[in-house]
Amino acid sequence: MIFSPLPLIALPLVAAVLTALLRRFGTLSALLAALFPALAALIAIIFPLENPLPLLGRDLYLTTPDRYALIYLYLCASATFLGVWRTTAKWTYYPVALAVLASMAAALGARPIVVEVIGGRPFDPFNYAILLFTFGAVLTIFPLQGGQPGVTIGTLRYLTFMVIAVPIFLTAAWILDQYSQSPDAVNLAQTATALLLFGLALWLAVLPFHSWLPGVASESPPLSSAFVLGIVNVAAFFLMLDLVNGIRLLADNPLVFDVMRLAGLVTALVGGALAFAQRDFGRIMGYAVLADIGVALVAFGTNTASGLSAALFVVFLRTFGLGLMSMGLALARTEAPDDTFLSLTSLAWRRPWAAVGLIVGAFSLAGVPPLAGFAGRWGALQQAAGSDLGASLALVLSSIGVVAGMLRGLQYVLRPIDDPTVQPVRESPLTVMLIVSALVLCLIFGLFPDLLSPVIRQMTASYVIAP
Amino acid sequence: MNVDIAKTIAALPGTAVLIGLLIAAALLVVLLNWRLLIVALGAQYVFIGLMLTRVVPIELAAVKALVGIMICPVLYITARRVHWGHPEEESDEGASERPQRRWWHFLGAGWPVRVIVSVLALAISIGLASRSPLPIVTDQALSRDLTTGAFSVMLLGLINAALAENPLKVGLGLLSIMAGFELFYTTVEPTLTIVGLLGLTNLFLALAIAYLTTAWASRRTGVSA
Question: CA-based, 20 to 30 A from A465: which of A188, A422, B104, B118?
Answer without folding.
Answer: A188
